[in-house]
Amino acid sequence: MNSNSRLKVFTTPFNSGNPVTVLVLGICSALAVTVKLQPAFVMAISVTVVTAFSNVIISFLRNTIPNSIRIIVQLLVIATLVILVNEILKAYVYDVSKQLSVYVGLIITNCILMGRLEAFALGNKPIPAFIDGIANGMGYGIILIIVAFFRELFGSGTVFGIQVIPESWYVTQGGFYLNNGLIILPPMALIILGCIIWIHRSINKDLQEK
Amino acid sequence: MENFINIFVQSIFIDNMIFAYFLGMCSYLAVSKSVKTANGLGIAVTFVLLITVPVNYLLNKFILSEGALAWASQSLGGIDLNFLSFIVFIAVIAWIVQVVEMVVEKFAPTLYNQLGIFLPLIAVNCAIMGASLFMQQRVGDVYHSFGDILAFALGSGVGWWLAIVGIAAIREKMKYSNVPKPLRGLGITFMVTGLMAIAFMSFMGIKLIN
Predict the structure, then answer these.
(1) What is the C-alpha to C-alpha distance for residues A99 and A206, in angstroms, rounded to an integer?
(2) Distance, CA of A27 to CA of A112 (rounded, Å)
(3) In DSSP terms, which residues pair with A177 in a beta bridge?
(4) Which of B191, B11, B55 is nearest to A192 (CA)?
(5) How far apart are alpha carbons B142 and A171 in whole angstroms?
(6) Per the CB < 8 Å rule, is A208 touching B126?
């Protein structure tokens, strides 16, 4: 595999092969952890790490795994990595790990992982598989961060916990501004994601469905 | 008895797997083009939830949680195997899905033909894993008995079933409407799910379990 096709492997997940908006993989966690930027960011990193390393491990094992039991082998590799990530999160960022609650465990059933293992790692060498894993994790992470940015900005007036909307604008301080309470609630994540898909597909017309 | 009904209703409407937690979104989006297939998948998910959640509850109670091994011998009472729960749960789910598939094929061939393609997919459905993780999180303070767990599993399954049949019916009607091109398919499905979730939010704040 030359450097040009490696570059292609790296860039596809950001545009025409985005795991969330095009392939419809890994939606569950993409929506539930996006109320604030910090948990979304931690989640994005965790998923990137797990995708990259599970891709590498399965790619190393690709010639030794019998075809009939490959799903369970993949699940075990993923589950082991997720346990490691979960323990690390609990040790170093306990608050965030409490906020993410069950969604860390749900990385195991995140379809991006199985999808990439089946579609890429089983048929490619470890280095391209690693690049593919990193890129897909980041393609997923970008969507997470965009959704979380809007939800945090309009829902709480902050970005990464730092107050962006001036305090004096708020009604309580005699101003005119109120945080949008609706945007913190789960349904708005779906609508924001719908808007992202709308914009993405207006720019990239090849992706439109008939 | 009243308690079971409360938990059942709460998990269908208030803690709906799709509208409140976004679990099982991948198959929800992929298999909701017609009501008939959506119905099949809904039945399969409910069925598998009804078996996996109680099994994982027993495993959690007698093996995984802190001090659970005390029933085997006094010296094992201090062991906490909680960190193993992800891998145990996913292994149980994958295994039960296999067994259910074989049993259904042997004893109910008609049902098998209806569910056939969906059953293997369920192993990586976030709703199944999510229900087990929620069970583990809430056991002790919300759910106290085996009956509570059964009511929760059945309710979650029925809630998911309701959601997927609802969206499939809307998508069947939407074929005839003039949706903007970039929104067709995935985009509009997200928006409609968001609107349905807003409708389901009217149940929020109702407290059935104390």
Answers:
(1) 38
(2) 9
(3) A170
(4) B191
(5) 38
(6) no
| C-alpha distance from A78 to closest chain B C-alpha (Å) | 9
What ipTM did this prediction achieve? 0.82
What is the Cα–Cα distance from A191 to A170, expressed in whole angstroms? 26
- Beta strand pairing call for A158-159 and A162-163: antiparallel
Count Cβ atoms below 10 Å from residue B177 Cβ, excluding itself. Answer: 7
Q: Going residue by residue through chain A (210 aa), what tens digit of pLDDT does each one get?
A: 677 788 888 888 887 778 877 877 777 777 778 888 888 898 899 999 999 999 999 999 888 888 777 878 888 898 899 999 988 998 998 888 888 877 888 888 877 888 888 888 888 888 989 998 999 999 989 988 999 998 888 888 888 888 888 878 888 877 788 888 888 888 888 888 889 888 988 888 887 776
Q: Which two tokens stand for residue B160?
A: 């998911």
pTM of the predicted model, to two decimals? Answer: 0.85
Q: Partners of B143 in the beta sheet? A: B139
Taking the C-alpha atoms of B20, B61, A80 and B28 in order, what is their torsion angle to the nearest 10 degrees? -30
The count of CB pairs under 8 A between chains A and B is: 137
Residues of chain A by 3-state class (helix, strand, coil), percent to 5: 75, 5, 25
- Chain B 148-167, residues with CB within 8 Å of chain A CB atoms: none
| Contact between B24 and A28 using a beta-carbon 8 Å cutoff | yes
> Among A82, A109, A184, which would you mutate to test the B interface (most chain B Cβ atoms within 10 Å of its Cβ)?
A109
Q: State how far the Cα of B112 lies from the Cα of A21, in Å rounded to an integer.
A: 32
Those of residues 16-55 in B touching chain A at CB distance below 8 A are 19-26, 29-30
- Among A86, A87, A208, the residue with its CB nearest the CB of B184 is A208
- Start-to-end CA distance of chain A, whole Å, equals 35
CB of A180 within 8 Å of a chain B CB? The answer is no
Nearest to B171 by CA among B150, B149, B196, B153: B196
- Whether B183 sits inside 8 A of A189 (CB atoms) is no
Which residues in A lie closer than 8 A to residue B84 (C-beta atoms)?
A: 83
CB contact under 8 A, B90 and A102: no
> Shortest CB distance from B130 goes to which of A86, A106, A114?
A106
d(CA A29, CA A193): 13
